[in-house]
Amino acid sequence: MDLLLQLLATGIVVGSLYALCAVGWGLIYGTTLHFHVAHGAVFTLAAYYAYVGQTLLGLPLWLAVVAAILAAALSGLLIDLLIYQPLERRGAVRTVVFIASLGLLIVVENVVAIVFSADPLRLDIGVLRTSLRLGPVYLTWLHALTVAFAVVGFCALVLFLRYSRWGHAIRAVSSAPEMARTVGINLGRVQLLTYALGSAISAPAGILVAMDVGAEPYRGTRFVLLASVAVIMGGIGSLPGALLGGLFLGLLENLGVWKIPSEWQAAISFGVFLLFIVVRPRGMFGRRVASADL
Amino acid sequence: MRSPIHVLAAVLTSALLVPVAGAQEPIKIGAILPLTGSGASYGVWMKGGAEIAAEEINAAGGIAGHKLEVIYEDHAADASKAVNAMRRLVDVEKVPFTLTSYSSPTLAIQPIGAQNKVVMMNGGGQSDNLANKDYLYNNIPVVSNEIGVMADWLAKDKKFKSAAMIVANDEAGRNAAKTFRAAFGAAGGKVIAEEQAALDGTDFRAQLAKLRAAGGDILFISMYGRAVSIIADQAREIGITIPMAATSWALIPETLKSKGADGMLVTKLPFDPTQPFAAKFKERYKTDAGFFAVQYYSGVKIFARAAEEAMKKSGGKLDGEGVKNAIESIRSFDTIAGKLVFQPNHAALMDIEAGVLKGGKVEVEKVIKAGQ
């Protein structure tokens, strides 16, 4: 029983990280229909921005984290501005955008590995590393912070989309891009904003993993893969779906090892995903893939 | 008085003659080491030790007048990278000898070495399967020697009854775990749980949560490299309070610095931090030397001694077969760590120490003399 509770708690923590990554990726995919795998590059960069901020520039941890989130948002925005939008203006189809994105992911990860080496770089997180005991469950304060980030980040995003002018614009573009254009919404700008927002929402996940186990250059690939799985499971275009999909994957990965040897951890998620996509291709809350409501 | 032409001719001839007179081709050997990745800390020691040895040999006139040149290759704990490196050393550089490290990579390159008659000297990998292999010599004991001491010490002296194990899912990790299970059982203990994990992993909490639930009174970490310190820290974080144990692999800077690893029960192979070599290493690389630095220093020195012998026999020709025959006939080598004798199984025997890791140092409690 104790083991189950511990795995449940670890699952929620890991699931929160996946959820943050999935919500950001899902927002971008739902709005632009770009299969933005370079989101993994932004995720990786966020961790290294925080490392550079704290270790090389000597910023206090909180400031390094805030700066890293902003820098990640800017990175996402620049990817769209400098790569995807010019490609689309030249009439590139979605596959071309996807290949460009994949190429960018590989280039960024390798450049990071060359500059910082492939070894994990630890951030100094001080008291956040101390244990937090809840009955039979052991976590660290960082893990509690991770769950808090996921909850607050998600709520803030939903409120922004519901109640701000720009949020309305994003939702309009995601549900009916042509209609949005006819009522005078600047699609290019909305797209840039979506990239900045989606990157900013996922950046904390990259930073929090790095704070826990060190920044690594190739981790983004795994996370963006899991994020896309979470989004497809949750239903494309549904942010609550992406959140729950991410949580579900984290829980599955950890609860799965309860009775199955732990070296199968990664295989469990993808096995269940395959099953899921065959049985319910639209995901939990999904609509048709051509457009989406947020 | 000489004419300018004569002077010019003399200068030209001497300029031409010098390289010819000194045209002793350098002797090239390889070194396939973990220079990056989860075991990069070993790489710093191994490469440093080999570099210092090669410099000393060259400063003293080289091997039978030939300069020694070491070509370093990185396997990053990956057997396929080791194979590529070995192919390059064999096909392009045509080395008669290479240093090698780690169990999986060494097992992967051994058939290439044996086929092409290139002697491999392993000073780091410890899988029992590295013994009795053609052209492969281990100037380190195989892990069963060390695990035997560890299991006995834990069960008989420390009175531990039941062990949980976290195991690297590679040759070295699995072989050590298998040996530990048998030896701990023979000494009166019992292994009650085992979880495997990737050597280059950074999050071992799922495995550790399962091991915590399984119980046991000692956690044996059948892992090496960076992973040991991460496991030690995460084990404490996740509420594992029982003592932990690991073999000499674990003793790298990451583990020595880890808070979770304080109090770890370890076996170690002899290393004297007060020897002149250690001071030389520290001065040169600005970091403390360790056991594996001496191992690869010795590996190069053993090669130099064997190569000299081989060239004496062949009248100056050097090939892998000659080096192998020389090692077989010399057998007992003087090293800075004492006499090193290759056993009939191509591995060395050493004293094995058992002790507790405290404040970054091992407090030795027991020493088992080589071969006992």
| Text of the CATH class of chain A | Mainly Alpha
Largest sheet of chain B: 7 strands, mixed
Quaternary status: heterodimer
Strand order of the largest sheet of chain B: 7-6-8-9-10-13-14
What do we call the CATH topology of chain A?
ABC transporter involved in vitamin B12 uptake, BtuC
Share of helix among residues of chain B?
Answer: 40-55%
Walkthrough of the structure:
The complex is a heterodimer of chains A (294) and B (372). Chain A has 294 residues and is mainly alpha-helical. Chain A has a single domain (2-126, 140-279), classed as ABC transporter involved in vitamin B12 uptake, BtuC (Orthogonal Bundle), CATH 1.10.3470. Helix content of chain A is 74%, strand content 3%. Chain A is built from eleven helices and two strands; from the N terminus they run ααααββααααααα. Chain A has helices spanning 2-32, 39-56, 61-89, 94-116, 141-163, 165-175, 177-182, 187-213, 219-234, 239-256, 265-279, and strands at 131-134, 137-140. Chain A has a two-stranded antiparallel ribbon. In chain A, a hairpin with a 2-residue loop joins β1 and β2 (137-140). In chain A, α1 (2-32) packs parallel to α5 (141-163) and α2 packs across α8 (187-213). The radius of gyration of chain A is 19 Å and the shape is globular. By secondary structure, chain B is of the alpha/beta class. Chain B is 45% helix and 20% strand. Chain B contains twelve helices and 14 strands. In chain B, α3 packs parallel to α4, α5 (143-157) packs parallel to α6 and α11 (291-314) crosses α12 (320-330). Chain B is elongated, with a radius of gyration of 23 Å. Chain A binds chain B through residues 2-3, 6-7, 10, 117-120, 129, 131, 133, 138, 140, 212-214, 216, 253-254, 257-258, 261-263, 265, and chain B through 36-38, 40, 76, 169, 195-198, 202-203, 205-207, 209-210, 212-213, 226, 230, 236-239.
